[in-house]
# Entry
Amino acid sequence: MKIKHIIRTVLFVALCISFNSCEDFLEKPDSAGLSKETIFTTMEDAERLLAAAYSTPPWGFPTLQNGAWNYGILNYFSSMASLCDEADNAWKPSFHNPRYNDGLLTANEIYPFREDKWMFEFQAIRSCYLFLENVDQVQEPRPPQAYINMRKAEARAFIAQKYYKLFKRFGGLPWVPGYVELSDEMDYTRMSVAATADSIVMLLDKAIPDLPARHEPGGFGRVNKIAAMAIKARVRLWSASPLYNPADNESYYPSFGQQEILKHSSYDRNRWKVAADATKAAIDAAHAAGYALVNTGNPRQDYRTAVTGFPAIEGSGSNVQATNNTEIIWGTRLYKSYWEGQGSQRVRPYSKNNFAGGVPYVIPLQNLVDLYEMTDGSVQPSNLYDQANPYENLDARFHESILYHNKPFGPYTMDMTPGGDNNPGGGQFFTGYYMHKFFSEDRLTNQIQGNPDSFWPYIRLSELYLNYAEALNEFDFNANRTEILTYLNYVRERAGQPKVENTPQFVNSQEHLRERIFNERAVELAFEEKRYLDLKRLKRGPGQIGGTMYGIAVEGTAASPTFRRVVFEERTFTDKWYLYPIPDNDIQKAPGLVQNPGW
# Structure
């Protein structure tokens, strides 16, 4: 079944852009000769509909290609990291960031330049519902009912994942209970935050029993039981967090008339326990299924494998080279290259001559670099950049995440000085750094041409450990201190960092651990599309989404450099940014659909 996209209004399920293929093949044969009467005749044909949803999984790599993934565009040559204090984009004058970082995004912005994908999420929801409600019609040869139930569970989990993505970005949502024909009426009333979270969890609870903990070889990329449990835990974590569960019971926009779509009706600390329990259930199920942190005692290699290595079990049938990555719970969108096609993320040195050739444009900010500890667990000293090699004794994860001056990268050594091979010069914006994470030094060293096999590390076990520690700390620090430290230290020690209680600045308090967990999330999950939304979830927009962003000026010569901290950019953030605007076009066409405040 060939998927194509046209602009067409179709009720809330796909208010702006729908899967025209779904419309077409319900009414007439498509290029494969399939019609509404025949699509559910065989399981093979029916699964093509589920495949349409699987073409829209979570994906954090930037892309510029057209076709079936054009709705995967993030911010042109960049990622969500460039929308907060993690990074920026070297081509920002021409493309994405000013809409966000300068506060210029509006509710009538044209796709695909927005980070949120409101309409595209509902496209996938619609395809999944159509599959879910009709797959039992499949005729002979009919697969076992357990197989059909598993695929139906995948569809439910996929619907829930799409709603979770919308929940994070928009608050309380209208709820589409099933596949709706174009002629049917639709209730566009937005549910409360509480009802939205509960509805997502109900979908997941129905899906989880029929999902396998792991898929068979060749099934890499399909949602599994542990992934569904992890999404449930994420929903509960968001529901407990300050954006939706403010301790002072005041939303970020108190003058707005429909507070229930912005927050719970009252603060409840017990929501953190619900989040902790859901996360622990996911962790225990993951351990029982053989998921574990990659931890061979080589912190840098282990971290690299944890993010980019294919699981040996599920990857072995996927035409990729599997590694012993035991912690990827859900890796999405398996492809042979990071951008597959136009603008591939090439494993070449980041030179000024390669900027026009498709290398990544993500340039990390000094703000992120400042968050990495020294190897003894201490914070960076104030005179760090007075040293000839300031980066030498930073956390191993820094060296695997960021390229910096004089860093060996495959057979090359990075030169960020003016006129150096890795300083873009000219009109390009530059922070003094490039993103290293997700890229293969081995391919450079061995002069392997082309692009590495890739996937997006959507759910890793280490994130669940940090989610669990956070939820326990917010619920009851005193009662859970040992458990909090245990799970926080699992992540730290794998990275070669000392236990948090053994670091020089440790303070035995809830407030201190709150900040240490938050900092650990920043460095462990750097560039994994977590921090920007974490900052919103925790209501930390001013100063970290908006505020002063810094870079490093590398001066002198490659052999004798000097380092100077410089202001890179001043960014704008106001409270209305905690939730995105629903597209104005949809507000006008959907009676009763309420816009978020400030837009």
About this structure: Confidence is low (pLDDT under 50) at residues 1-34, 63-75, 336-359.
